[in-house]
Every structure is written in C-alpha cells, then in structure tokens.
Design brief:
Helix content is 47%, strand content 14%. By secondary structure, it is of the alpha/beta class. The chain is globular.
Length: 411
C-alpha cells in the first residue's frame, strides 16, 4: 500500500480535517509527511504548533495579496495553533532580493518604523488579535552582532546560495549582486531558529528563504520547520503579481468605495483566480457560481458578490452596501452622497479654470484635454465647449466616472 495513502487512512478526524485545511489552495506543503506527524503530535500532547509568517514593512499598507497567506494563517489559528506575525524590521534594512533583477534599495530606520506601525493593525483585520503573537526580528537580529553574523554565515555555502534562481539569473546576465543580499535569506532563516517555528508560510517566491529556515534549524539542533507556499495573487492588471511597488494593488485599508470599485475593475478571467485565493466561500460554491456564469449568467453579478465579500471583510456589511450603491450611482451618471465642497470666486469663470481650481484637473491644459475627450460633465450634462464660462451659482462638476466636486461660484 502507498505510504501516503496509508497515512491518510489512519488519520484521526481532527488531524484529517487540519490537513485538509492546510492543503486547500496551497501551492506546496513540504514535507507533507512531517507536517502530518506534527499535527498528530499536537493532537496527542495538546501542544499547539508554532506557525510563522514574516512580512517586511516596505510600505505603509498591507495589500489584499498579502491576505492570501493571512487567510491561511487564520484558518490554522482557528484550529488552535499559535500564530506568529513577524514584522521584519531588521530584514527590511537589508532588502529582500526575491524576484529582483537589481539590488533593492534599503529603507531608512524612520521609514521602517513608520510603516511597521500600521502593519499589525491591518493584519488584525484577518487574524484574531487576541490569539496572535506579534514579534519583530530586530529582537534577536540586533544582538547577534558582527561575530554572531559571521558565525551564522559559516553555516551556508556560496555554492548553495548561488542555486537560488534570481541570483543565478543575475550572475549569468552580468548583473551585480551585492554581498549583503546573501544575508537576507540567512537572517530570515535565523528567524525560524529564534522562534522555534513548526511551519512557515510564504508566497511561492519565498521558497528558497523558507527552506533556509529548515536548514538553519537543523544546524542549530532543532526539529526543522515545514514550509507552506501559497500562490502569488495577480494584481489589478491581471499580469504581474500584486505589488505595492507596481501600483497594481488594493490596500486592506483602502476606502470602501474605492476597494469595491477596484475589485469590479478586474477582468472576468482574473475574477475566478481571486475567488480561489481570496474568497471564504467553499470550493463547491465557487464551482457552482462559475457553472452558472458559463451557462449564460452575467459575470458582473459574480464580480459584485466578490467585491461585496472583500469590502465587508475589511470594513463592514453596511460599508459594502453603501459602496455598491455608490458604484451604481456612478455608473448611471448619478452623484455620490458625499463629494467635496469647493468655494470659488471670479464668476464668470472658464470651465477649464474651474476644473483646475476645484482640483479636478492638474492644469487648464489638462482640463481642456478632458473636455475634448468628453470626460467632463456639469450637472450631468457633457461639456464640449472649452470656451464655456460658469456664472454665479452652485454646480456639480464631474470628471470621468469617479471624480466629483460641488462647486459654489461667486463673483
């Protein structure tokens, strides 16, 4: 009998359920059998497993791409295991070379501290704060010192480091690799030693770093962690992975109306990928929804349902209702309930000047281009005359689908 099949058949109900939850939506779980044994030991002893996720505060916001692994952490947390949310305030000073074709510029300590302040608050929108252990890797990395860092570096070879795909490509392409970049995977791996982690989660681009943790734990006489990689979520463009640096992301702290609208902006094809990785609906529910669309249903309805689910998660059901209504109003040319109020003087005032002074266009030239493109409305009427002047009064001025201002114009 196949060993894996035998193991599966002899699992208790609770371990089998925990394994099923661990595997749902994952890219890889390595090594599978070791994770099963850890789950069985945890059940037998009543000792929770230590599950680690590290994020570097490279920008002030966590985006919904990060929540792919946070969702998995929450699922494991709900099974009773100890979740460690690790803020990489030390590793950020090095800069993660993963997926990079050039050296990543390190952030200043002030930038890192400012960004780190928001990270845990935003992650708590997914994780249960009362059951989450928050740590900073400067706790053990700063005291390591130069001597400790050299001793750590002696536990891994340059040859093995160069097996890393992005280092290999850069080396063969004649692109520079700074020596300090070798320290990043070492320091991330050392985090696992310091935390005595049983499982580390990350995106597929983190596999090398996660395996480093296993190696270093063995070097330091610990039982090695298992690793679980989650697929990378494509961003709004549907091509590149969601990234703060690429600007194709939705921050978890995004304003509800903008969050709802951005989800609706993705392609029908990308929608199903997002359902798989972001939705808490069951696999069966998603399959039924997809079948209904393939049978002739309107894909927009499925996309609206996804937008509602995501907006509700990070705000509230009431905020999702309001965001949906706001989107409907905008799509029909309606006016949102809340728009900026702007007081201007100088009536009669040229429309391009109104756009500039109301903050709806960067310049009068841009305002004229918007008018030429049919993107400007005054009180719901499309403006085509660039010579139009507005007299005293109050007007709702709109640019595109999402920019509004209620302009009160005086002499």
């Amino acid at each position: 009998m196949n060993a894996d099949l035998f193991t599966q058949q002899t699992l208790s109900d609770s371990v089998g359920r925990a394994l099923e939850i661990s595997l749902r939506g994952t890219d890889e779980l390595l090594p599978h059998d070791e994770w099963v044994r850890k789950l069985q030991r945890s059940e037998a002893t009543g000792t929770p497993l230590r599950i680690k996720l590290g994020l570097d505060p490279t920008a002030p916001d966590i985006h919904i791409g990060h929540t792919v692994v946070l969702n998995k952490m929450r699922q494991l947390q709900d099974l009773g295991h100890t979740v460690i949310f690790l803020i990489g305030d030390f590793t950020t000073t090095i800069g993660d070379p993963s997926g990079r074709d050039s050296t990543r510029p390190p952030l200043t300590r002030e930038q890192i501290e400012a960004n780190a302040q928001t990270y845990y608050r935003q992650a708590s929108l997914v994780l249960d704060p009362a059951k989450t252990e928050i740590r900073y890797n400067s706790e053990w990395s700063d005291p390591l010192g130069a001597r400790g860092l050299i001793q750590l570096a002696s536990r891994y070879t340059v040859a093995r480091m160069m097996e890393r795909d992005d280092f290999t490509k850069r080396f063969k392409g004649g692109q520079s690799i700074a020596v300090h970049e070798f320290l990043y995977p070492l320091m991330q791996g050392y985090d696992s030693v310091a935390l005595k982690s049983d499982l580390e989660l990350g995106g597929t681009d983190q596999k090398f770093n996660l395996l480093m943790g296993r190696h270093l734990q063995q070097e330091y006489g610990q039982e090695p962690q298992c690793i679980l990689t989650m697929p990378l979520l494509e961003g709004l463009d549907g091509v590149q992975k969601m990234s703060k640096s690429k600007g194709n992301y939705i921050a978890v702290a995004e304003e509800p109306n903008a969050m709802f609208a951005k989800v609706l902006s993705i392609s029908d094809t990308l929608m199903w990928r997002w359902y798989t990785l972001l939705s808490f609906r069951s696999i069966e529910e998603i399959a039924a929804l997809k079948a209904a669309i393939e049978a002739g249903g309107n894909p927009k309805e499925a996309k609206v349902a996804l937008a509602r689910e995501i907006t509700t998660r990070f705000h509230s059901a009431a905020a999702a209702d309001a965001a949906e209504q706001d989107f409907v109003n905008r799509s029909k040319g309606g006016v949102p309930d809340e728009i900026p109020e702007v007081m201007l003087s100088g009536a009669p005032l040229g429309i391009a000047q109104v756009l500039k002074q109301a903050g709806l266009a960067a310049s009068t030239s841009e305002g004229n281009r918007l008018i030429d493109g049919g993107g400007v409305r005054v009180d719901s009427t499309v403006i085509s005359d660039k010579g139009l002047k507005l007299s005293d009064g109050s007007y709702v001025v709109q640019v595109g689908k999402r920019k509004f201002a209620r302009v009160t114009l005086g002499a």
